[in-house]
Amino acid sequence: MTSSLRGLAVAASVGLTVLVAVPGASAAPSQDVLIGEVYGGGGNSGATLTQDFVELANAGSAPVSLAGWSVQYLPAAPSASSRWQATALTGSVQPGKTYLASEAKGAGGTVELPTPDAVGSIAMAAGAGTVALVKSTDLLTCLTAADCAADTRIHDLVGYGNAAVRESAPAPGTANTTSSARVTSTDTDNNSVDFATGAPSPLNAAGQGPGGGTPPVPAKIHDIQGITRVSPLAGRKVADVTGVVTAIRAFGPQRGFWFQDTVVDADPRTSEGLFVLTGSATPNVKVGDAVVAAGTVKEALPNDDANSTFQSVTQLIGATWTVSSAGNALPQAETLGVLPTAYVPTGGNVDALELRPNEYTLDYFESRESMRLAVSDVRVVGPTTEYNEFYVTLRPNENPTARGGTLYTGYGQPNPGRLKVMSLIPFSQRPFPQVNVNDKLTGLTEGPLDYSNFGGYTLQATTLGEIAGGGLQPEKTRKQRSGEIAIGTYNVENLDPGDDQAKFDRLADGIVTNLANPDIVALEEIQDDNGATNDGTVSAGQTLRKFTDAIVAKGGPRYEWRQINPVNNTDGGEPGGNIRVAFIFNPDRVSFVDRAGGDATTAVQVVTQRGRPALSVSPGRVDPANEAWNSSRKPLAGEFVFQGRKVFVVANHFNSKGGDQSVHGRFQPPNRVSEQQRVKQAIALRGFVDSALAVDCKANIVLAGDLNDYQFSPALAELTRGGAVRDLIDTLPVNQRYTYVFEGNSQVLDHTLTSRAPRGVDYDVVHTNAEFAGQVSDHDPQVVRLRPSTGDDLLDKLLDLLDLIEQLRASRG
Predict the structure, then answer these.
(1) Which of 513, 507, 505 lies closest to 478, judged by CA?
(2) Rounded CA gap, 244 and 250, in Å?
(3) In 145-236, beta strands by DSSP E
(4) Tens digits of per-residue pLDDT, 176-205?
(5) Full-prediction pTM beyond 0.85?
(6) Cα–Cα distance between 802 and 797 in angstroms, integer?
(7) Where are the beta strands (DSSP E) in 41-117?
């Protein structure tokens, strides 16, 4: 990260006037030379640079002689025997220039520093320490922050990491690949505010960086943004960048401001907006300020991970600026209208492809990155989340669901009209609205366009419209008839006894009120009895007791449960949580066939009893030693009896989509790496089904749970091949096929599949969570009501007739 003072140096070198009052650790505030950047990882493992360094910069208007001065270093946790180490300085620092002192050289690294202006041999620690700029070559003796603040020889001081000697709070810690550099335009005497961690970027008095360096380039914003996703000036220092401040992010670790050029070029591919990152410091600008800025262009990827599969955001870092006027009119916000129908070009990494904003939606948005945009009267398609965000659609007729969402119908249909909305308005002025799917965002909403790995392109609202309720209510399903068995599935999202009672109560109310007390429920994400505490606990009896007690309190039946404890930390999910699948069932309606011997590693087998299939152990895990279930939940099979008929139910929770490339990322089409394991899991599960059907082709089998995949996925194709089992989601009208809402897409993750034997199958996804703010789970539950086959066609027909008579009687009251 380039220091803010270096940016000041750049600004001064191109004729800008910069006035900075910078109080240091000494009694009199310094207004000239300050420490700009410190780096102690040189030559260490993984480092690019071979040496440590300290960089100074002169923000004043006159040269400062360094004759008789030094930079000195003290370990982060000094003891009574600790001693400062010093490097003597010579020469002077010109106004608007930097000065580089090289320090100890390590065995690693591949890139040499530019020619230093002073040479020392201090071996600075990579993670933490204190550096002082001292108006003397005599070694300092102070070992506390208070004593050093009283030493008038200290011109400036920075403590980074857990340094005991620092100005106020220390700057963030560094590492072998990161330095600590100034990010503020004025010194606050608080190292934690004035410095931020980033990639080291030393610059000597000649303006050279590693490998010789290059001088700053005068540039306009559209020059910086360029015609591809990656700036043509990425990594370069720029100056004389003009624009009007349009928005400020004054919270969080990624603070900064957006500014936009009021003089646009003729190329529709180049954005006129840019974000200036100030790190943890709130920028000292106001909306409407006209600024002239300088800094380093960075393509910011999530977590600074060069291998990130997400798109980058073009930013100006280590920036300084001058305000030339205040109260200027903002550039007119462009109202988002008709979007291209295609989503994004394909062919691998699309970073270097020239943008085609008239053809692709993501190119359209990228060509407007950081510019002021506006929407009005749009429908909500993704509810408010815990991160204070929701999604709207700019294309209201794009695959609408029956309840106002946007349906995800296939890999080639990502629904380009979706846009995330967040707010830059302080919550003290306006709390973020809690909205549901099908609500309307009315009036004008405007602000700069941002990009986030969590959700893609985002309108950061500086003006937020009003919310008109869409009237969406949680659904309730009907109660099963006497001749029907009702089997539900519900992902209860990391449920453990440490959760608030309110969560248990709401989930219980969902079982009783919304699902009408199914006879059997397959539960996913039941955690062990102390949740994420990673102490070897694997039992979940307390979790299930608390849940079933809550159901009784809501007026439901006294459910019993069956489950198998996993081997500690082998089934994925939250570390220490030991999530697993489990059954709860109503013993007044169904009975569970218990057969001993089922444990975490014993595989359940289908055996033959009197010519009919049975389970060797019940409950039992399906093929738990198969590599398909590595770090993933193992399916749980149970044998139930309903009105004398056997029903085999398997609760499932396939591996998550973690590691898959994003639909809005820079690799197109995205690679769905997690899919491979789910295909293997589907093959293993289908093998179990086939073994039961081989004994009795009329066996009643229900597969239920969170399969973490779509109805059109290869995994579901494996499960349903040949038609031996059917995915009931496909029996619903197309606009009702969803169980989960992700980034504004209503999609299927949860499934219920049955063999062909059951009759009168009546299936319902009960929309109670996914479309609503403040949801108790991110998944919607579902239930299937069916009449199990007896295996005797004549008897089945008789039972069907009796059920029909019951329905007629019920309809007549």
Answers:
(1) 513
(2) 17
(3) 154-160, 179-182, 195-198, 217-218
(4) 989 998 776 567 788 988 888 888 889 899
(5) no
(6) 9
(7) 51-58, 64-65, 70-74, 85-88, 92-93, 98-105
